[in-house]
Amino acid sequence: EFRRVLFRSGKVTRINLATDAGNSIISYQTVKLFDAESSNTNGRYIYTGLETGVDNSGVLWLYFGTGDTQKIQDQYSGMQNRIYGIKDTAWPSITSSPSTGTVVNCINTSTGCPLSTNLGWYTNLLNYQKLTAQPTINGTTVYFPIYEPPTLTNICTSGKAILKLTNSICGNSIAADPDKYLGTGVLSKAVTSGTKLVIGISGTADVTQAKGFNKTDNVIVGDISGTTATADVTIEAWREN
Q1: How far is 205 from 217, CA to CA, in rounded Å?
Q2: Radius of gyration of the CA atoms of the chain, in A
Q3: What is the pLDDT of residues 10-68, one digit of tens each?
Q4: How many CB atoms lie within 10 A of CB 102?
Q5: Which of 38, 39, 74, 173 could potentially form a cystine with 178 if both were Cys, beta carbons 3.0 to 4.6 Å apart?
Q6: What percent of the chain has pLDDT over 90?
Q7: Distances in Å between the alpha carbon of 160 and those of 34, 72, 132, 219?
Q8: How far apart are CA 196 and CA 105, in angstroms?
Q9: Could you give the C-alpha distances from 7 to 21, 48, 66, 150, 232, in angstroms and in order?
Q10: 58-72, 194-208, 225-239: lowest mean pLDDT where?
């Protein structure tokens, strides 16, 4: 048996699949791990995939965020998107079914690191920001590609492309300038290559305010943060059918 984690609107669902010798699915079980409590009022929908990693204690972490990328310029009172780092507390068991978590079970990163009794952490995004691509883990750092729409008086212009750097376990800022302004437009998923981070942008790249980053047309290359020999989170495996 093996598992995958999928999204349904604002919910994270684990699907345990049972297969036969030919790897054909013969049965499955769904477990709702987390509810972002999405609504038309808060706009907190999940449109991108999650990133996973296992910490040194053997805990499986899931990193994801919210933002309606089909209405990326939207901004209205009550909108509140977030980024998250939560645990699958049952992993690697496939028979245990943890109860569905919400932010009530998590720590807001403005108050400190999650305790062992907490499901994880979350951060409220400001200025109607939205996550635009799947996060990336490298060492102790999680990279979240963020879009911030322009003010309503400049709604026809492109908004800000921001790469948000957070600590993998606490979710707090990992540098003096954790929000890297990389230009205007929408960022792609960040890809690691050796000691470098590569990320695309749909608009105009601007790295004058991002130390350690360079650009060539619509491709931005930066130095990786948090690459230490004792990384808290590492990618163990990935499979997609």
Answers
A1: 7
A2: 18
A3: 889 888 777 777 777 677 788 889 999 999 999 999 999 999 998 888 899 999 999 99
A4: 13
A5: 173
A6: 59
A7: 29, 12, 12, 16
A8: 35
A9: 28, 9, 11, 28, 25
A10: 225-239
Torsion of CA 65, 71, 77, 83, to 10 degrees: 10
Show the tokens assigned to 108: 């807001």
Tokens 């047309």 belong to residue:
217
Q: Residue holding tokens 């977030």?
A: 82
CA distances from 13 to 5, 59, 112 (A): 6, 17, 27
Is residue 148's pLDDT more than 50? Answer: yes
Among 120, 175, 110, residue whose Cα is nearest residue 143: 175
Distance CA 195, CA 209 (A): 20
Nearest to 72 by CA among 94, 47, 52: 47
* Beta strand extents in the chain (DSSP E only): 2-8, 11-19, 25-35, 51-55, 60-65, 82-88, 106-108, 120-124, 130-131, 136-138, 141-148, 160-167, 179-184, 191-193, 196-200, 204-205, 213-216, 219-223, 233-234
Can you tell me the mean pLDDT for 166-184? 85
Residue 229, pLDDT > 50, answer: no
Contact 108, 148 (CB under 8 A): no
Q: DSSP assignment of 121-152, as one string? A: EEEEPPTT-EE-S--EEETTEEEEEEEEPPPG
Mean pLDDT of 104-133: 94
Q: How confident is the model at residue 2 (pLDDT cuts 50, 70, 90)?
A: very low
Q: Show the tokens assigned to 24.
A: 């054909």
**Residues making up the chain, counted from first to last:** 241
